[in-house]
């Protein structure tokens, strides 16, 4: 097939690259000349393991084409994916201005029959609005069907999630469009010994709701884990063991049931806010999700409270090392990263901060001023009164603790992601505090 993706963020670029890798001709439309020219050279604007190699391979094979021109991409495509951002407004509602703007351009350039898919995360009813916009502006001879195919990608594992999804949700009304989309997704939705992919065929509105419900529930699991961790600390229980045992129950599951310094990223914070706003707009007070937000923010603020306690109650003038800045490992994404809140809290207390992240430093420098950016773990630890783990990068798991202790002013570790075994760290002579322990 010939496919067009509008948007070259995590969702658009990863999905486009995978479909090109499967042998399709894939256009990617962007709006920034510099980014498009870089992409043509295989220079990608995001960090995602394996993505750069996949982009370069398919650009070289002329299967992956980058452009700013809606013609001839749209006119030649069987399927068009709208995969642009929907950032939150002040009210928490999703900003759909770019989605609607893109829909107009798509409509003007349709030729023949095309399936137009909204892959962006959008509130229920958005696809219907897109349908109306396209109907108003399309050429008379052009025919189209609208569909909702939400994404369920995890940053850092986005290629694997696209190639081997646990489900493909297709919200569609037309039989012809449904058959085309089933055919398009066959290579990634084929069940094998390792992967069981469920194809969910449903209404457009249901597909839109599935995406929000999924992310909001995962965020809820994380906040529940953090609430249990805080209570465990107060009653003398070991929170990580409690959560591990809970997760062994197949009805609950182990995934996303980890206590830490809170969730962040481009999806969970935005989608929780959006679902609360959707509920408010429709007369339902989603108090559960409001509490999920509160617990998550409190998990971030708890880091500074624990830091103060570990150094004797006063952080003023202390040197604190931060290991990890991105909101999760294997990404350079700083959007809503818990490190932003923690560093802001520390800066209010006149703390000297030195930090390191394996890939997110350049993005962090755009957002965080007034701290020292270091080249490695040991530069961060040098002369520090306290070391805080904010992102569970693998390279932090095997650091030389003996060396770290020797170069720190005070051997104190606050493990915001429960990376280390407390007994081992304490054997090296550190004062150690995790989450829920």
Explain the overall architecture.
- By secondary structure, the chain is an alpha/beta fold.
- It has 2 domains: 2-190, Rossmann fold, CATH 3.40.50.720; 203-437, 3-Layer(aba) Sandwich (Rossmann fold), CATH 3.40.50.
- Helix content is 45%, strand content 15%.
- The protein has 17 helices and 14 strands.
- It has helices at residues 10-21, 33-40, 51-60, 70-76, 97-108, 126-137, 158-163, 175-189, 204-235, 239-247, 268-281, 287-310, 338-348, 361-367, 377-381, 401-407, 422-427, and strands at 2-6, 25-29, 64-67, 79-82, 113-118, 143-148, 167-172, 198-202, 319-323, 352-356, 372-373, 386-389, 412-415, 431-433.
- It has an 8-stranded mixed beta sheet, sandwiched between helices. It has a 6-stranded parallel beta sheet with strand order 11-10-9-12-13-14.
- α1 crosses α3, α5 (97-108) packs parallel to α6 (126-137) and α9 packs across α11.
- The protein is elongated and about 75 Å long.
- It starts with a strand and ends with a strand.
- 46% of the residues are buried.
- The model has no long low-confidence stretch (mean pLDDT 96).
